[in-house]
């Protein structure tokens, strides 16, 4: 089977890229299951119910969040009260609504598990994703051998450590959050597909999706500058994972970057 994972959608430009590029990718690549990270879908911070409904008109099976999942708390609560398609990181501290695991089916009826975790390095409000993975994955393998992990984390080293920690136990460990696509996609020795960061879906003439004039002053010392979503050079970034349905081992992973040309 082929699983498509689309990297962090940033604001309206990212949503527009999804609308116009996703259907063709799914058709041309014969995708069986689609996962999209939407942590920055609403103006760069979180998601709203209206945007969730907008995205669900597309062929998206599971939406993952990240460290901004509760930025718009009332909207987030509405979404997870109505649908299980949006999941938050499982290992955040606190009593939040929603789930950290999604169980769906491919087009051929094969069960697929999506596990969402958040890192601890330079991240707030989380506990060890390694302990949560170690605890939950044996239970998840009773549901299906096909398990895709979205690790929303800052540090490349933490993502690589998770990849090898879970090698042979899950189908894929896909890094999100830093918005810069890495060129280290590979199949690890025991059959787990891995990439440190799948990149973002948004405007690439930017600082990780935000405009130059609102981002650069923050590095000079103007910390109160308001971040604005950038609009130019919009691209969809993601990866396609090929997975053996019976064993759950991955047989291939390739990056995709598609520019929005209109």
General description of the model:
With 262 residues, the chain is α/β, with parallel strands linked by helices. It contains six helices and 14 strands. It has helices at residues 11-29, 49-55, 73-82, 129-140, 156-165, 212-220, and strands at residues 2-6, 8-9, 33-37, 62-64, 86-87, 101-105, 111-118, 147-152, 172-176, 186-187, 193-195, 200-203, 234-243, 250-259. Strands 1, 2, 3, 4, 5, 12, 13 and 14 form an eight-stranded mixed β-sheet that branches. The mean pLDDT is 96.
Provide a brief overview of the structure.
The chain is of the alpha/beta class and 262 residues long. It contains 6 helices and 14 strands.
Largest sheet: 8 strands, mixed
Distance between the termini: 31 Å
The helix count comes to: 6
Low-confidence stretches: none
Number of strands: 14
Q: What is the helix fraction of residues, given as a range?
A: 25-40%
Strand and helix order: EEHEHEHEEEHEHEEEEHEE
User: How would you sum up the global shape?
Assistant: globular
Q: Radius of gyration from the CA trace?
A: 17 Å
The fraction of residues in strands falls at: 25-35%
Structural class: alpha/beta
